[in-house]
Amino acid sequence: MGIETTNVTIWKSENIDVPDEVFSLLLRQFKTEDNVFQWLNKKQRYFQAKTPISMLTSEPGKEKLLGLIERLQHGDFS
């Protein structure tokens, strides 16, 4: 049984699979796919100036991204 993913195009050159669980959480938080894509591609201080989408290239990065999403859902924007 594989993990469902959503394919996201970044800068029209690189494709990174976004797991459905991550995409669904982000869609609930940011309301539209466009907002999700913009946020995924914007460098974040929380990730030491890396983009959230780049964090999905490793399991520890994915866990850190999920942690940030959880914080955002609870209104913690620090």
Blueprint of the fold:
Layout: E1 5-10, E2 14-19, H1 20-30, H2 33-40, H3 59-73
Antiparallel strand pairs: 1-2
How would you sum up this structure, described in words?
The protein is α+β, with helices and mostly antiparallel strands and 78 residues long. It contains three helices and two strands; from the N terminus they run ββααα. It has helices at residues 20-30, 33-40, 59-73; strands at residues 5-10, 14-19. Strands 1-2 form a two-stranded antiparallel sheet. α1 runs parallel beside α3 (59-73). The longest helix has 15 residues, at 59-73. The N and C termini lie far apart (37 Å).
Please, how many helices?
Answer: 3
What percent of the residues sit in helical stretches (DSSP H or I)? 40-55%
Whole-angstrom Rg:
12 Å
What value does the average pLDDT take? Answer: 86
DSSP E strands, number: 2
Strand order of the largest sheet: 1-2
Termini separation:
37 Å
Q: Mind summarizing the main beta sheet?
A: 2 strands, antiparallel
- In percent terms, what proportion of residues is strand? 15-25%
Structural class: alpha+beta
Low-confidence stretches: none
